[in-house]
Amino acid sequence: MARIRVGVSTLTEAKLIAKCYHVQACLAANVATFPAPPYSLFEMEVVRKKAEARIAEATDGGRWKTFYKNEALEEVRRMLTRTANYVEFVSQGNVDLFALGGFEIHGGHAPLGPLENPTGLRVLHTGHPGVVKLRWKPRHGSRSYQVYITEGNPNDPHCEWKRLTSTTRASCIVGDLTVARVVGFAVSAIGAAGETGRSQPASLMVA
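and the corresponding structure tokens:
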């Protein structure tokens, strides 16, 4: 039976955090397949953010700051290992389900390098008030996509982007939007090396 390659012990700090983002996004997009992971999505978020904070605090050195950073990173490794065991158990050797859970097959091909940002984003009216459809070109090697929204000028580098949802498809339906308001969208791809930058934004007046 195929097994999952965990491999968290050899990852750098940045790649470990990126792996956590990736697994969390995959589980969020496939709740029906993986309904009861050992850590809830909220708990995963807490553990990851704690590690990110400890990494930032330890940048200026210090014995105790480094100790707390290493402790937080070890908690991330334990979380990912337990989650990998859960995904493997649920998947029963199905390597496609491994990928849906954010993991790779043990002894499989080396993962692709960093992905390029998604391209071809379009925002389309659906004929339903406050509902739009997003489409973009699939990015080979991506496991999932993050969808971002802004109510500011999407071409302003200082505008505030909010993460809206994640999906494993190169399309997304967004609802509950305010009619007669211009909104902007962008997407990023998540692969084995982590999350890409955001795509070129696209916007429209919500009908």
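(Above: one complete record from the training split.) The chain has two domains: 4-105, 122-205.
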